[in-house]
Predict the structure.
Amino acid sequence: VAVNLDVHYFKSDESVPIGGNKKSDNVGWETDLATKYKYSKNLCFMVGWEHFKPDDAYKEVEGLTSKDPFDHIWLQADLKF
C-alpha cells in the first residue's frame, strides 16, 4: 500500500483582467490524495481525491460567479497483460 499527498499551485503565463484596472495570473490551488494497493504482480487498485480551489484568473476565464472549490473522487484499476 502506498499513499501520496501532493499540493500544486497554478499560475498562468499571462495576467487576465479581473475587473477595473486589476489583473491576475493566479489560477488556483490543488490538493491530491491517492492510495495505491498492489493486489498482485499484474493488478493494482487506486483511489483518490482531488480538491481544487480556483483563484481570480480561473474564475474570470471560466465565467464562474463564485470561487467555491471543486472536489473529484476517482477509482482506478490497472491490469497488466
The first strand starts at residue 2 and ends at 19. The first helix runs from residue 56 to 62.
